[in-house]
Design brief:
With 431 residues, the chain is of the alpha/beta class. It is built from 15 helices and 12 strands.
Length: 431
């Protein structure tokens, strides 16, 4: 079996899957339409793919006349069909990341299925999460939300996921961001996230009077950095032996250097998963991670126990207590770090993750990998406080009706969203 992985790279997932398949003796190739800025590696580029990526860079070049940008977009899209023609003969299976395909067309999916190709989509959250639950798409601001734009984004995402459900053999999604799914999908956590980095033996660290805590936000607003840093600084002012290392706009090498030297990590305030990329990178050094999010109280309803990555996953309001626990309980802190390292190096090892994806491609699907979207009632979203989600919901429902949420096929979820919006309206009226 020959497997194509692409056409975009997300946090090294393509590299990790390709590495794991190589270890299993399966031929795979990473095919990217856009050159990744972090250059994860593992990609073999011939003339066809080099031109494809060059056309995208030409489009993105600064100070380009509008007509050249438009021409580059057209040529890049057209070139994708040439890549598809080559791929139809070169590969038996296609693993698509981030909801993207080589041409992003229905025609491509029809052709792939007609030719008997296996198709897997791996969704990563930000590609299909409802826009009214995503703080990256709809960050908290003083201005009123553009409800028409939000409605268009929700409708577009819903249509796309229905298209993928029709033609894909399998879709892999996190249940906490799969609100628009209508058919059962493969739980993202049952597959795992391939850790393509190397694990070195842990070095003994000398006891320090002051613990180092790392926070490295790629998007400070989405990560809740202001509140995180404020809480840590308050603890420092109260005499807690902490040193905050906040990393922003630095190289990945510098982040890794600081992770190796720190005692624990505080990742983000409003996460809908227990461990993201920063937490897994910290785990390679045996460093534990604190993650906050509204899913913390109900994580067992969405992720099988054996698939939950070890972190200190708490609700946003419990962040202060979580940091104090890390500081005061050395045994807990070190133990959690070692558990995370073992989990990432074994459960999320490239070979182990790739083996599960090959089982999907071969039709060997375990029953506990499936998740029914009818069971989703999570309304806590990602990268923003619950109050802002309630505000967006109230404006959307009040202006365009509850159907605009695109979850009418899930009565329990729809009711939960309506109740959250009503809470917002009650608070406003009481003021």
């Amino acid at each position: 079996m020959r497997v194509l992985i692409g056409p975009v790279e997300i946090a090294g997932a393509a590299k990790g899957l390709s590495k794991g398949m190589s270890e299993l003796g399966v031929e795979s190739q990473i095919v990217l339409s856009i050159k990744h800025p972090f250059a994860y590696g593992g990609e073999k580029k011939g003339f066809l793919l080099a031109i494809w990526q060059w056309l995208w860079q030409w489009r993105a070049a600064p100070q380009q006349p509008i007509w050249r940008k438009a021409l580059a977009v057209v040529l890049h899209r057209a070139w994708g069909f040439l890549v598809l023609c080559w791929a139809l003969f070169a590969f038996d299976a296609f693993i698509f990341l981030y909801g993207r395909t080589l041409t992003d067309t229905r025609l491509e999916l029809v052709v792939l299925r007609r030719l008997g190709k296996k198709i897997i989509f791996i969704n990563v959250g930000s590609d299909f999460r409802p826009p009214y639950m995503d703080g990256v798409v709809s960050p908290p601001t003083d201005s009123e939300p553009d409800v028409s734009h939000l409605a268009q984004l929700a409708q577009r995402a819903k249509r796309k996921i229905i298209l993928h459900e029709r033609y894909a053999n399998f879709i892999v999604s996190s249940p906490s961001s799969a609100h628009f799914h209508e058919r059962p999908f493969i739980n993202w956590f049952s597959m795992g996230v391939p850790a393509s980095f190397e694990f070195r033996p842990l070095s003994d660290t000398e006891p320090r009077g002051c613990l180092r805590v790392v926070h490295s936000p790629s998007n400070p607003v989405a990560k809740g950095s202001e509140i995180i840093c404020e809480v840590i600084q308050q603890l420092i002012d109260e005499g807690t032996p902490l040193e905050l290392i906040c990393l922003q706009g630095v190289s990945n090498d510098e982040v890794l250097r600081q992770l190796e030297r720190c005692d624990f990590v505080v990742d983000q305030l409003y996460s809908d998963i227990p461990m993201a990329v920063l937490g897994s990178e910290a785990a390679r050094f045996g460093q534990p991670c604190i993650v906050a999010g509204y899913l913390a109280d109900e994580v067992d309803a969405y992720i099988p126990q054996q698939d939950v990555p070890p972190s200190l996953y708490v609700r946003p309001g419990q962040l202060r207590e979580a940091i104090k626990k890390m500081v005061e309980d050395e045994g807990f802190r070190r133990g959690l770090g070692l558990q995370a390292r073992e989990f990432v190096s074994q459960r999320w090892a490239c070979r182990a993750v790739a083996e599960r994806y090959l089982m999907l491609l071969n039709g060997q699907v375990r029953s506990d990998w499936w998740f029914d979207p009818a069971n989703i009632t999570y309304v806590g979203g990602f990268a923003m406080p619950l109050s802002h989600i309630a505000h967006l919901l109230a404006r959307l429902i009040g202006s365009l009706g509850v159907e605009v949420l695109q979850v009418s096929d899930k009565p329990f979820l729809r009711q939960a969203l309506v109740e959250l919006a009503q809470q917002m309206e009650c608070e406003v009226s009481s003021d």
